[in-house]
Amino acid sequence: MDGELLSDTFVELTDTMVAGFDVIDFLHVLTDRSVQLLDVEAAGLLLADPRGELRVVAASSEAARLIELFQLQNDQGPCLDCYRSGLPVHVKDLAAEAGRWPRFAPAARQAGFTAVQALPMRLRDQVIGALNLFRAGQGTFATADVRVGQALADVATIGLLHERTMRRSEILNEQLQTALNSRVVIEQAKGKLAERLGVDMDQAFSLLRDTARAGNRRLSELAQAFVDGTETLAGPAFGQPRPGSWRKP
Amino acid sequence: MIAAVAPLDGDVRMTVSRPGRIWDLVARQAASHGGPVSATDACVAAVAAVQVTGAWLSAASGTELPGHLMSVTDAVGERLAELQLRLGEGPSPDAAANGGPVLAADLGETESDRRWPVFAPAARRAGAAAVFTFPLRIGAIRAGVMGLYRDRAGQLDDMQLGDALLFADAAALLLVSAGQLGEPAAGAGPGGQSADLAGHRAEIDQATGMLTEQLGVGVTEAFIRLRAYAYAHDRPLGDLARDIVARRLRLGPDPDSSEDDQA
Predict the structure, then answer these.
(1) How far is A88 from chain B (nearest CA, A)?
(2) Residue A186's domain is classified under what CATH number?
(3) Which end of chain A is more exposed for a tag (fewer CB within 10 A), N or C?
(4) Which residues pair with A133 in a beta bridge?
(5) What is the pLDDT of residue A12?
(6) CA of A201: which chain B residue's CA is closest?
(7) How far apart are CA B235 and CA B249, in angstroms?
(8) Is there a single domain that holds both residue A39 and residue A127?
(9) Cα–Cα distance between B212 and B234 in angstroms, integer?
(10) Of the given ranges (A150-159, B10-19, B53-62, B160-169), which has the lowest mean pLDDT?
(11) ipTM of this complex > 0.85?
């Protein structure tokens, strides 16, 4: 593991945790850094919703096949097992897990992954979600990687709260729901932009995120404004509407 | 003490039926007065299920919040709603602005007076000790705000919070669907609609966004049209959304003649 990248990453993440920071972008940065640091091909953060679901809030790629693997884990898979047990789940060989996860394991293999890991996001004695890591190569996760992965999961938890003192214990639930709704806004924005430009969802997300950063705006706010129609996303990266599609006056 | 997040049930069927159970309660409430299901039914049903004292619901006027007061279950709820509308201060305005719930478990604590210096003491005088407000949203769609109050301080427990969120989901969907002819009560059928959602949330939300471009409409209208198409063609919403996202299906601007563009 690149030691300098490791320390730079933690400095970067903790530096951004000031009042008013963009938690959604932060969680995406964390999944990106997880891929860079941990020798994995994909990463995602899932949060437990009091409604009784595990929901993905950020991923290193917004490609549909990957998002699908997170959505599947609402029913079965390493993140669900991790959430229920509070313990990390490591699977070296997905081919051997078809009995354990009859829908998830084949789908993950079909997406090109060989191994998977889920690390619990912990808050005191509660598990609030999981950091999900996927490998496409040889399946063993190095011990040092597991420790750093757990530290990243813990930083994700702190970032979600983004308040240093727990003045009110309801803060987690409030922040969680705000983040989950922001995720929906971002999905709607991805769809609108993907359709407008004729690009895929991952490209649409990257454009939204790059625009937010360039304008020093929160991704969730930009996505909301774009869906509302108050933000047009002008610039050379954004082409004209496709022929045949109507613009709302 | 941190409110523990509700553990997911071991039985998959239990996980899927929580929204179904909530819809059942809403439908029963509607059946008790014999009219069509509306957001008011979600508001009323929430009071008993979540074990609060009363509730109110305000619906957005167009896309503007706070909008207008649509339902109240008692005089105290009405007072709380009107106070916040008049003052522009309180958990409801905060929830509408934040896009997330505001859970004020104790209006008597210093923090409440700090956040809402006029509303908090007035609310206490009116008889409320705790207030929990939920923006009624489907992503960028803003339908209103639902507020619950209790005459005693204390947090909602995990189950109550989860149920309150599900009632808020139901209220949002009912507000958005209100007046749409040809569509049955949203979520009709035990688990029929809701069982679909968890595995296809991303596709449904993305398809909604895509339809704003394909149809040239706002996001609320796009969502209504997506559901209307699913109903008219008797297709599960998630399946339809997947087809749209995969670009196997495109909806044309004319609601009476959708283009089935089979690629």
Answers:
(1) 16
(2) 1.10.10
(3) C
(4) A43, A117
(5) 79
(6) B206
(7) 13
(8) yes
(9) 22
(10) B10-19
(11) yes
Q: Cβ of A227 and B102 within 8 Å?
A: no
Residue A129 lies in a domain: yes
- Please count the structural domains in chain A: 2
The size of the A-B interface in CB pairs under 8 A is 177
Q: Which of B44, B37, B211 is nearest to B141 (CA)?
A: B211
Partner-chain contact A248 B140, CB within 8 Å: no
Compute how many other C-beta atoms are within 10 angstroms of the C-beta atom of residue B94. 20
Which pLDDT does position B46 carry in this prediction?
98
Domain B194-245 class in CATH: mainly alpha
Nearest by CB to B2, from A52, A169, A179: name it.
A169
Residues in chain B: 263
Contact A201 B12 (CB under 8 A): no
Return the higher-pLDDT residue of B63 and A111: A111
Region of residue B34 (phi > 0: left; psi between -120 and 50: alpha; otherwise: beta): left
Nearest to A246, CA basis, from B227, B254, B176: B254
Residue among B2, B15, B138 minimizing CB distance to A172: B2
Rounded to the nearest angstrom, the minimum Cα separation between A106 and chain B is 16
- Minimal C-alpha gap between B163 and chain A (Å): 7
Domain that holds residue A147: 3-167
Amino acid at B212: T
Report the residue of B1, B8, B65, B196 to disrupt the A interface, i.e. the one with the largest count of A CBs within 10 Å.
Answer: B8
Distance CA B108, CA B121 (A): 8
CB-CB under 8 Å, B198 with A53: yes
- What are the helix and strand counts (H, E) for chain B? 11, 5
- Look-up of token digits 């011990």: A143
For the B12-177 domain, the top CATH level (class) is alpha beta
Same-domain check for residues A206 and A135: no
pTM of this structure: 0.87
